[in-house]
Q: What sequence folds into this?
């Protein structure tokens, strides 16, 4: 087997094949009416001709158009098609990362192959949710392109680094901000020891031009798509009104006293999750001073380690903004890549035990959260039909889907409109329906003016059914409609009649005064 073919096999074809096997194994397992439903709804509405942010509450646009494009090619807008689009994106991210981790000297011996296989396992374990893989791949792309820039800084590479920064901002504006912070640190690193900063100053317009080009899809949309510019600016303004980027949770430090009262399995899981949060702080605190010292002494460094170190700082913000394992898993990748690269260069007596530890912690933390882990380790699962696809899901989630199917069949059959609030945005794509309101994920308080607009939309849409989800989030009920958006809640009480849902105590259902039950 030639060297070129071997590298092609292990660095390109193998990760793609493993993603395919994973999809076959667990692509029909688990379902989430919350965040997965949020992405699914957006992809369906793009297929229907709507524009993210302008026509419905959404993340930044790129992920929706990617998902919608795959759905369009497949001729199917179901959740399996949505996941297939995410799996293709996941394969791209893995290929990028493995080419980054592979040795630059073109050798690929048995131990190198073993290390790459272990790296694939670790990366795929942490990429555990399809609907967030776009955020993961954005981080992986940034590490790869920043490492490429640092390898041989030039005007040409500065420009394309800027293009990457602008592009990831079209996936999520938070990625754009994180990229700017990481790139600023990395570019400052390249100028350590230089007395003349003219070259650095000259690079600023170059990277700015690249950012403008990478972000061009949004600029162009603001210019040519009616109403998009004002909606985009409103979405930024709303972030400042919220005064937060997420719903906060306390950090689960490994020394947290609550671990002592948990069942042993949960306590062990929580302890290692806490260690990972500590590692998010320790990794850049150790590596950045180290690479600065190496730079001042002209010692050679792997540019990918430098890129990972500087990007791990802003990405830690995402993990700590909502300190749970899911958000940790989306933010950990710069640190994870940096750790793998550092471990790779150690002597075998250190390398393999440390690599084994990384694999073991990843399996312990992430296997129970994988779709198959949820159904064969944590929960009992049953089959449920979702837009024609049979999905194996935990019993509670199956019950959620079935109660929605029952309520819609009874009170909003056919093309009748319905409202599900403040969560479960996946209810709409479940029935190929358009939401009667803009905000499909009303977890935070909105202004009175915004609520009045939503009420006007409800008056126009005339929904036959309203379903209120009153399942406490983080043990709190502040996001319930009656607590967060009381004007909309009052409108529902005035214009709809409550119907009993005794089999599901966390739901309240209402039919319109004008509607008649078809039971």
A:
């Amino acid at each position: 087997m030639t060297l070129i073919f071997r590298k092609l096999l292990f660095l390109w074809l193998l990760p793609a094949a493993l993603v395919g096997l994973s999809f076959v194994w667990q692509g029909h397992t688990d379902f989430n009416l919350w965040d997965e439903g949020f992405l699914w709804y957006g992809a369906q509405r793009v297929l229907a001709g709507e524009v993210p942010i302008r026509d419905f509450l959404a993340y930044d646009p790129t992920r929706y158009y990617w998902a919608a494009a795959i759905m369009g090619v497949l001729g199917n807008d179901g959740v399996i098609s949505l996941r297939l689009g995410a799996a293709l994106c996941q394969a791209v991210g893995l290929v990028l990362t493995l080419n980054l981790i592979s040795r630059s000297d073109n050798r690929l011996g048995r131990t190198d192959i073993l290390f790459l296989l272990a790296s694939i396992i670790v990366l795929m374990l942490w990429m555990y949710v399809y609907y967030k893989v776009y955020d993961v791949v954005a981080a992986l792309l940034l590490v790869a392109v920043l490492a490429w820039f640092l390898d041989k800084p030039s005007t040409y590479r500065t420009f394309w680094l800027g293009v990457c920064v602008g592009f990831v901002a079209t996936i999520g504006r938070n990625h754009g901000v994180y990229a700017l912070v990481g790139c600023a640190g990395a570019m400052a690193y390249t100028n350590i020891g230089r007395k003349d900063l003219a070259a650095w100053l000259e690079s600023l317009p170059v990277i700015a031009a690249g950012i403008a080009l990478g972000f061009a899809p949004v600029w162009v949309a603001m210019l040519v798509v009616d109403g998009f510019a004002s909606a985009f600016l409103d979405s930024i303004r709303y972030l400042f009104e919220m005064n937060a980027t997420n719903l906060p949770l306390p950090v689960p430090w490994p020394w947290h006293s609550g671990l002592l009262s948990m069942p042993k399995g949960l306590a062990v899981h929580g302890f290692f999750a806490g260690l990972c949060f500590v590692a998010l702080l320790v990794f850049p605190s150790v590596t950045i001073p180290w690479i600065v010292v190496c730079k001042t002494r002209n010692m050679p460094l792997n540019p990918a380690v430098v890129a990972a170190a500087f990007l791990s700082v802003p990405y830690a913000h995402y993990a700590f903004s909502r300190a749970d394992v899911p958000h940790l898993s989306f933010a950990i990748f710069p640190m994870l890549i940096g750790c793998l690269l550092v471990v790779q260069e150690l002597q075998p007596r250190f390398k393999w035990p440390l690599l084994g530890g990384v694999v073991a912690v990843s399996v312990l933390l992430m296997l129970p959260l994988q779709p198959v882990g949820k159904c064969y380790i944590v929960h009992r699962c049953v089959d449920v039909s979702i837009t024609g696809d049979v999905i194996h899901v935990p019993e509670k989630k199956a019950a959620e889907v079935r109660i929605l199917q029952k309520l819609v069949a009874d009170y909003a059959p056919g093309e009748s409109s319905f409202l599900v609030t403040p969560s479960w945005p996946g209810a709409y794509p479940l029935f190929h329906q358009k939401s009667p309101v803009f905000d499909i994920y009303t977890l935070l308080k909105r202004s009175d003016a915004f609520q009045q607009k939503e009420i006007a939309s409800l008056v126009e849409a005339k929904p036959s059914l309203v379903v209120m989800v009153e399942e406490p989030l983080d043990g709190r009920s502040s996001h319930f409609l009656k607590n967060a958006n009381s004007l909309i809640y009052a409108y529902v009480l005035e214009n709809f009649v409550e119907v009993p849902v005794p089999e599901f105590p966390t739901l309240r259902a209402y039919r319109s005064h004008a509607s008649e039950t078809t039971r």
